[in-house]
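During the no-cost extension, the postdoctoral fellow (Dr. R.K.) reprocessed legacy sequence entries with the updated structure-token encoder. One reprocessed record is reproduced below for audit purposes.
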Amino acid sequence: MEPSEIVQLNIGGTGYTTTMRTLSREPESFFPQLFAGDGLDRYSHVASKMADGSIFVDRDGELFVYILDYLRSGKLILPDNFKETARLREEVLFYQLEGLSQLLTPYYNLKYPTKALTVNGGSVVTNAIGESGGFITIGYRGTFAFGRDGQADVKFRKLHRILVCGKVTLCREVFGDTLNESRDPGGEGAERYTARLYLKHQCLEKACDNLVEKGFKLIASCSSGANGLAAPSHSMLSAQASNSQQNLKEYMNQRNSGDFEEQRWAHFTQLIFYREPQGECKCGVLANPGVVSPVLPGMAKINGENSNCPKFVSLPSFHLSPESELLNIDICFTCNGKHEIVWKHEEEIIASNGRRTIKTKGQNSQVHSQVSIDKPTIKDSGIYSVEVLDKDSGLSARKRFKLNLKAERSKEQPLYMVPPSEFWLDGSKLGLRFNVRSAHSLNVNWTKDDEEIEASEKFEKVLKNLGNNEHLVQLIISQPGENETGNYSCIVKNEFGQLKTIFKVEGKISKNAPLFLKKPKVYEKIEDDQHFTVFKVVFKGRDENPRITWFNPRNQVIENSERYKITLKPSKEEGSWVTTLELTEYESRDNGVFCCHVRNRTGKDSALAEFLFNVEIPETGNVKNGVN
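Re-encoded structure tokens follow.
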């Protein structure tokens, strides 16, 4: 289309008229792609051409006015008291307007400090903020509720209000929706402190649990003494007695009432909690807190500004063996120099002994460390921390997490057979899965951000019996995008107990990620009386020499050997590649999921293709060449 050509748009039922030049302010954004040759086919799920010639886009029509204003002027002008910042951000991400994303970032950070955004190389990504340190003080005025004749009521403790003081962002992180900010007129600001917040509930133990779960510790407290009232021998009562015996009698009756007893025991208490800064290196740069799993295709990862800082590249994972005899805690990190790793439990260094062993393997780009606990008990619950020190640079990173173990764990309740993991199917579907063992019927419930997930075209829930009391639990997300980021939780129950698994999906899809051009294929062939199974992937990358890694069903890296042969060569289309994995004389142990990980060599953008391989072994002579 010509730049001056008039374009009629229908955005969510609202009509707009503009020019192609305006819509093309950012060449790599949504509209230039939409009006390209196959754009309408590519975006057929959200856009279509109407009978009157206008283009219908199934997005928010009211918020598009701010999008169009930016495309016309290059400026972002929002009205006073604008309350749709989060929704506008979703629209900006959909239209792929990176310039507007940068302009919107300050507004978003002021509105949602705990979900702050950072600008990284021109693209805005969600910043998984590490646990920043600081103080929080909670105070409360309380007494004891008394019934008639001074008898203690069932609800003997009475709290009027739990006050919260400290940095606003910290308070929001800890207390979330239970924090009432209606009395705090201080406005927004990530570094703002206040003493005018309070909780919507009056349960002191719940408030303390929230603080402990976020890594805070009680370091100090203070409380006023009892508000003692006058005794009969007090001078005030003596004076009243000389004036009127009747007044004295009334006063003593009032003194013995419940109201006076409550006043007598009234007190004000303050509890001061502190948390050390987490995920920070000694140079003061925020290191990767490790909440970047799973990664969407080409997802930008959050890294420290100092490339020499050790960085965690995965969340801690826990795997309890089916017999409940061994608990493994795993974590992965990167470290450019010679590393030293220290594990702690309740601030005490964990040393390898009869019950606990520590194993660390790998170097530089990928280091894996594991703590194994033999026959874990409830005493092994608590706060764990892992600290990585780069001996060459002197920089370090630290990660804390909490582990809860139940006493007398029943072996009949669901247990992990295969730990939780993520996978990509055909390069377009994200899967969250794990295997459990249970001899009894299972009930599976998936939630996203505490809302139950219903089966739909977007979400497919799978529960499959694999035999021998092993079950596959899986959630497949079709075409995941920004709207599908968040916390996913799966609770698997049987009559003896339950198992809860949490996945965290976050990030921003990059346009530079490798793109699969065809559906991955598996076919068989026979050469020189040898049977081969071939896995084939065709993709388009940004580099002349992309990096390819194949994984077997046991999640082990595959290298060229007598049984495996890996090839990579250019395809017919410019910029496209073909990679294959040839498996010689497959066996039953080869059944499972094979993965092909494609990554740009000059960046971190990547994509993953998966093959589910589960076949019966035929006689070699009966195998014919062909595609499955």
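Residues 116-130, 279-306, 616-628 have pLDDT under 50 and may be disordered. The chain is about 15% helix and 40% strand. The remaining legacy entries will be reprocessed before the final report is submitted.
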